[in-house]
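Box 3.1. Reading complex inputs
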Amino acid sequence: MAASDSPSAAPILDVVGVTKRFGTFTAVDAVNFGVRDGEFFTLVGPSGSGKTTLLRMLVGMEKPTSGEIRLRGKVINDLPPNQRPTCMVFQSLALFPHLSVGKNVEFPLEIRGQSSGERRTRAWELLKLLHLDPHRYYDKNIAQCSGGERQRVALARALAYDPEILFFDEPLSALDARLRKLLQKELKDIQRGTKKTFCYVTHSLEEAMVMSDRVAILRAGGIEQIGRPDEIYASPKNAFVAEFMGEVNLLPVTGGGDSTGAWDTGRKTLALALPAPLAAGVQKKLLIRPESLRFLRPGEVAGNRVPVRILNEFSLGSRIQYHVEVAPGHTLTVERLREERTTATEAELGWELADSQLLDA
Amino acid sequence: MLVTRTQRIGFSLYAGLVLLVFYFPLLCIIVASLSKRRFFSFPYPSEQITFKWYQDALNSPQIAEFFGISLRIAGLTAFFSVLIGFFAALAYARYRWRGRQTFQRLVLLPLFFPQSVLGLALLMWFNFLHITPAWWTAVIGHTVWITPITTLIISIQAYGLDDALEEAARDLGASRWQILRKITLPLLLPGMISATCFAVLLSWGNFALSLFTTGADSALPEWLYARMTTGYQPLVPAVGVLSVLGAMLLVIVLFTVVAWNQRRTRRLTAAPE
Amino acid sequence: MKTSAPVPAPSADASGSSLFGALAALPFGALMLFGFVAPLLCVVWFGFMPPKTFALLQAPTLANYVTIFQQTYFKSILWSLGLAGLTVVCLLVICYPLAFALAKIFRGGASFVTYAIATSLFVSENIRLFGWVIGFMKNGVVGGTLATLFDAQVDSLLYNIPVIVLGMVYVYLPFMLFPLALGIKMVPDQVREAAFDLGASRWQVFRKVDLPLSLPGVLIGSLLVFVLSAGAIAEAKILGGQKVVTIAADIESEFTYAQNWPLGSALSTLFIGLTTVVVFVALARFDLEKLLGKKRD
Ligand SMILES: Nc1ncnc2c1ncn2[C@@H]1O[C@H](COP(=O)(O)OP(=O)(O)OP(=O)(O)O)[C@@H](O)[C@H]1O
Ligand SMILES: [Mg+2]
């Protein structure tokens, strides 16, 4: 499943120490990564982390302050966007409002000087590939298209350019959840079908996990972690990455010199067993996923146990999510199967050491 | 978009060139107004620099009268065009009513109209009504031409107004008239001030309309025109410069009054009850 | 409770607002009826009065229009329209790059240039034109400078057609520049970037994206300048020195020297009619909404 297994694992795009400053503000800070030929690579980060800025440098719309961008080994820092074999689907899509759907798709072909017959055939093919019936859509006005249709037109137009790498800047962020899911799947299918390299930007790790072969997590202009989605999920490098993945519990612990740590909740300090030794006085975060926490029956053995008060419960379908309080202001999230539902207000919470991880704050 | 340094420099040079050409005539006038000779020729030695023409112009009762007439016309025009423009802007941008779209389309029509023809039409109309044109008929002419502009300026501000403000005032029990006086008017004040500036200045410099509508009275641009078309007169550049200075002075006075007024109201509103 | 109180129906509220809208528009409407519509009707009507009369209530006649077609007035109409057309073309060429820079390239400098040009609107057109007279006349600023620098003897540069066009270009530049800049500002940056990204050269981006999308600004600016400069009177007189007689000058002299108001009115009517036709044809040929892809049919 992962692209690293495929034979063409050589990087097509190399980003080496790329930095971008606006005045004194550093939007992208010495970023390094490589994108491999034919993979679906995704940059994830919260708003303002520099995703768009990074992408604009990769397509040539912005010049890096320092660092190198190499395409197949050749430095392309100074190549303007119209001479790069790359192409971007904008956050706003940037369709040409004065051209029809068909003419939008044909635009790059027209620029290249293809005959109108060739252009039309190609546009027709691409519209079909994107599930837009050419008979209906070819002459349609952009203003008359729905959000999802525009999305597809933008993708068709980018594919018509036949780029070596296709960049996407959160193209699905404006759509509703269902349509977004559908288009995510289609995007992935098209990437598999065309074997093109896709480099995608989003602020939703969930979206990244669905589509990507590899994911890079961006934070304040720097990359925190790069890896396959399952790798990142299984072993987030630090608390920021873990937190970014959704609802997880991160307990601040202070090392006790051996494999124990203290969790200061203000009213009382809990002694916890840690999965790895932690030097005395060192502060780290202990990651425990909600599904790794369970309510202990009397006498049940667990690596760690903590008395809690159950505050409330939410139904997630087949599962139930609980918010429990360890001490005032310190809550944890627990997720259990519906069969294990509990109605108690006081309980003992337990988890196994192997299910927890020590992370840098 | 990537804009290269050379492009930025190129466009800057071009803009500079356009501005230079644009201000060249004004420079010429200033140069000419300072020349002692009765027949201007350039260049002239520095000992021939004189303020004589300015003195002549300032001492001439006739020119003072032209200034006075222009000032009167500008003042009244500004008053009426901003007053009418204020309500027209409400109709244009605030209220939803049936004729609104038509109104919006027609408002600008007088602007697209050659002013000389409009002036003539007014002349005949006044003649038909047995009105002898005088400086105050010019006020009507100027107001017709300038009110669409003030309307537009105030409308731009009115569009920016948050609907919720008026609705909130209404919810708190204010009548429409109270809303107008206590909410809308103060909020539109900046727009009305710039509209006043525009009105004063446009009226001050207007020639094409004044030419036909002032009758026996003569506004400054008309006097200048009459002198310009009959050969060179050294007084003309001096009066021209004075007229420009007059316009600048008007604006400065207007802004000072406004700033003073705003400070005063702020002090009043800031003071504890 | 709010819900139990009788809530005014939305339509009632709307009609109240409607009344206020009409009331607010009333003073403006009255002004325009009195100061714009009535005078124009007056002109049109007067054009049908017997020549050289001053009363409005006589039997209508076509005598004035017959005179116009028998004499050479069409020449001045052609001059006016031709000069106006030439002015529009020159201004488009001069202003587009500047408007583009204002809208897309300059940052702080844009407002400086805008103010510098807008300020000129407040200086009487005559004064500014007179500046050119001083610049271009014999021994004027230009001639004098050339004479001292290069020892070249330059005669007066005034009183020819290029100078008239220069004067009109100069006076009406703001009326082209600002609509253009607004039009170009409306072209979304990302759309231009997308074209660039899809391989278009700068020239292609201009031709295929900038120009079509800024066409509303081009159209408005051109029409404004065309109408204003077709009716211009001062440029030809002050700079052109009667070299060409424009229709506006013809009309003026009918009213002043010739004292033939009906003929002047007929000329005005004809002129108004012609410019209106030009404006309407231009507006109809370029369906703005369609150009912008805003139309949903
Ligand atoms: N032209 C610019 N001038 C100054 N600062 C800029 C410029 N462009 C971006 N920035 C700053 O750089 C930072 C990163 O911006 P960027 O648009 O790359 O964020 P992003 O990760 O794409 O965010 P989002 O998810 O909201 O799109 C932001 O703090 C932004 O304010
Ligand atoms: Mg972004």
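In summary: Residues 51-270 of chain B form a domain with the MetI-like fold fold (CATH 1.10.3720.10).
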